[in-house]
Amino acid sequence: MSEQKVFTSRLFGPLSFLFEHRATRWSSIAALILLMAVAPIVFGQYATVILTNALLYVVLALGLNVVVGYAGLLDLGYAAFFAVGAYTVGILTQHFGINFWLTLPIAVCAAALAGVIIGGPTLRLRSDYLAIVTLGFGEIVRLSARNLQITGAASGLSGIEQPWLFGWHIARPIDFYYVFCVLAAIAVIVSIRLANSRLGRAWLYVRHDEDVAEAMGIDRVKVKLAAYIIGAIYGAMAGAFFAVNLGAISPESFSFTQSVLILMAVILGGMGKIPGVILGAFIVILGPELLRDLGSMRLLVFAVGLLLIMLFRPSGIWPGRNAQR
Amino acid sequence: MGTFDIITHQLVNGLVLGSFYALVALGYTMIFGVIKLLNFAHGDLYMVGGFIGFLALSAISSVVGGAWPGIFVAMLFSMIAVGCLGVVIERVAYHPMLAAPRLSILITALAVSLVLQNTVLSLTQGQYTAFRSDLGFGGINLGSLFLTYNQMVLVAAAAVLMIALQVFVTRTQYGRAMRAVAIDKDMCELMGINVPAVIGVTFFVGSALAAAAGTMAGAYYGSIWYFMGFLIGLKAFTAAVIGGIGSIPGAMLGGLALGLLEAFGTQIPGIGSEWKDVFSFAVLILVLVFKPTGLLGQSEQERM
Fold first, then answer.
1. Were B21 and a residue from A46, A255, B208, B239 both cysteine, which residue would form a disulfide, CB within 3.0 to 4.6 Å?
2. What angle do CA A93, A99, A105 make, to 5 degrees?
3. Is residue A17 part of a domain?
4. Which residue has the higher pLDDT, B295 or A219?
5. Which 8-state DSSP code applies to residue A259?
6. Residue A254: which residues within 8 A CB-CB, separation 6 or more?
7. Which residues have a Cβ under 8 Å from the Cβ of B281 and sit 6 or more positions away?
8. What DSSP character marks residue A68?
9. pLDDT score, position B303
10. Which of A128-142, A255-269, B107-121 ranks highest by mean pLDDT?
11. What DSSP line would sit under A107-125, residue for residue?
């Protein structure tokens, strides 16, 4: 197999044949775009809201996938970065009256800074320490949001204004659906480009054998930190649009359960595989809609699913041509 | 209250809280010692221990009463049941994963934790359950300090359990095997030690200690719910790290240290009780960054 083929099969599994040749690649992309564009018209408003939520999770899961799937670091507090993005936008637009689009770069910087603060000192530690530190960090962010005045304490921020884009007021559910479509598309493209970059190969190396990677001249702390910051930026972007979509944010949106759901999306579908992660995000969001009758049991179903996946199929639901990798 | 009263009062609070942390931290540290796994489900075993203790107490309180003697019987029952649960978890979920990449086993441990939590969640509908017992509110006055009997019994019970553990680990065959496995598993195998059995015993003892803490905490605070293991799991891990992970006296020391730190930390002006948890997580992160080996831990060699 050529290098390109190995790469696509790693990322796309059995669907990789669609992306190997130029003609099939562009036609399958066109078909996908058409499908996404007509979906809200076909399925109606309720489904549009659910699909928007699923797309939000696609972005979040792809971001966490950079950390967990690419770099092999377990992050149990990913919702913290989601919160940083949402609260940065909420506070700047509400208290300071800054235009939403101008807050985006600030949210990205804030998330990157948070990534450095938490990742910088801890990435040298054992991987299980990192997991628990991120868990603690997630709780610190949530509790701070709940205790501080500027974040609106327990009730959070509400009345966050919906943005305008060149005279288009992004306000209706269908508007946000298309915005999230674009966001998810960007997230997918960036993920593909990242996996195929020098950095992506360094992650692969570090994930498989840290010591050998180090011996080959890869600065493992630096590449791990890069994964951490990129994941944080994904989370912050998702958080920013989440805040304007709902118009209100509260600390409980960023709980440990949220972090776990995002992690489930990454693992259920298949860590490191982009269609797998997208599938996982849809399962996590659409699953509860389909399992509505189960009530409080639905998380139990997910938890058991996660355990079974880990025990019997650690590479996730999405089949890979080389699942043993 | 004068400054001295505040200090003694917080000292007692810190000791009670620290006893719970220490009991749970012991399980973390022992399990970490033998299989180098951070058992995320450990806090949830504490929670399950609380619930089984509650059920056992409800069943037997008509015979032995709902005061401390009854609670101890219920606690013993809960310790055995949760100890067995711990062994089953190790056999079913962790044992097949020991050779897998580290990330996989960590996620498996998280999955076990979620399964336990959500099983109890669906059984209780996520409601708090009142832990009914007949504990009085009596106590003795030491100057201006009011020490309840419950606090005294609780700290004493925790101390007895920890002493028993220390005797078990230092004076018995299994205890010696456990320490040996923690040092070099492969070599133990060659020396004819039944390593899986030792790991099983470690899980049993560690889980039983968490169950003891869960039952006592339920009786002491008067209510239990499915999420009560999450926070204490994190705190106990913090305690284990402060003491030096893998070190049994370290876990006891770390638990008490964290309990006292929290009790006194909330007295610092500007850090109210709403910042209590932030305070202890910040301690965790600082310890991990500046002294990852903890107070009594041995420095870990970088494996190459």
1. B239
2. 90
3. no
4. A219
5. H
6. A79, A80, A82, A83, A86, A138, A141, A142, A145
7. A136, A137, A139, A140, B234, B238
8. I
9. 40
10. B107-121
11. HHHHHHHHHHHHHHHHTTS
Contact assignment for A307 to B111 by CB distance below 8 Å: yes
Which residues of B sit within 8 Å Cβ distance of A? 37-38, 93, 96-97, 100-104, 106-108, 110-112, 114-115, 117-119, 121-122, 125-126, 230, 234, 237-238, 241, 274-275, 277-278, 281-282, 284-285, 288-289, 292, 300, 303-304
Highest averaged pLDDT of the listed ranges A31-40, A205-214, A315-324, B261-270:
A205-214
Residue in A closest to B109 by C-alpha: A307
State the smallest CA–CA distance between residue A243 and chain B in angstroms: 24
pLDDT at site A235: 92
Rg, Å, chain B Cα set: 19
**Tokens at A289, concatenated:** 């809609």
- In angstroms, the separation between the Cα of residue A67 and the nearest Cα of chain B is 12
Mutate to test the interface with A, among B104, B110, B304 (most CBs of A within 10 A): B110
| Helix orientation angle between B195-221 and B42-64, rounded to the nearest 10 degrees | 60
Q: Which amino acid is at B108?
A: T
pLDDT in tens, A3-39: 666 666 666 666 666 666 667 777 777 777 788 777 7
- Chain A residues touching B119 at Cβ < 8 A: 300
For B70-83, the pLDDT digits (tens) are 888 999 999 999 99
Nearest chain B residue to A305 by CA distance is B111
The answer to whether residue A15 is domain-embedded is: no
**Does residue A23 lie within any of the structural domains?**
no
**Is the model's pLDDT at B1 over the cut of 60?**
no
Q: A-B interface: how many C-beta pairs under 8 angstroms?
A: 110
pLDDT at A63: 92
Closest CA to B41 of B101, B88, B100, B99: B88
Instruction: Sketch the domain layout of chain B as residue ranges.
Output: 15-229
Give the DSSP letter string of B137-201.
Answer: --EEEETTEEEEHHHHHHHHHHHHHHHHHHHHHHHSHHHHHHHHHHH-HHHHHHTT--HHHHHHH
* The pLDDT of residue A179 is above 90: no
Global confidence as pTM? 0.84
**pLDDT tier, A322 (very low <50, low <70, confident <90, very high otherwise):** very low
Residue of A nearest to B113 (CA): A303
A270 falls within a domain? no
Q: Which residues span the domain enclosing A94?
A: 52-255
A74 CB neighbours in chain B (<8 A) are: 103, 106-107
pLDDT digits (tens, 9 = 90+) for B155-196: 899 999 999 998 998 899 888 998 898 888 888 889 888 999
Residue type for position A214: E
Residue of chain A with shortest Cα separation from B32 = A128
Cβ neighbours of B13 (radius 10 Å): 17
Nearest to B34 by CA among B174, B203, B264: B203
> What is chain A's mean pLDDT, rounded?
81
CA-nearest residue of chain B to A259?
Answer: B110
Domains identified in chain A, total number? 1
CA distances from B125 to B64, B103, B227, B254 (A): 30, 32, 12, 35
Residues of chain A with C-beta less than 8 angstroms from the C-beta of B97: 310-311
Give the residue from A259, A296, A309, A313 with the most B CB atoms within 10 Å of its CB, the best one to mutate. A296
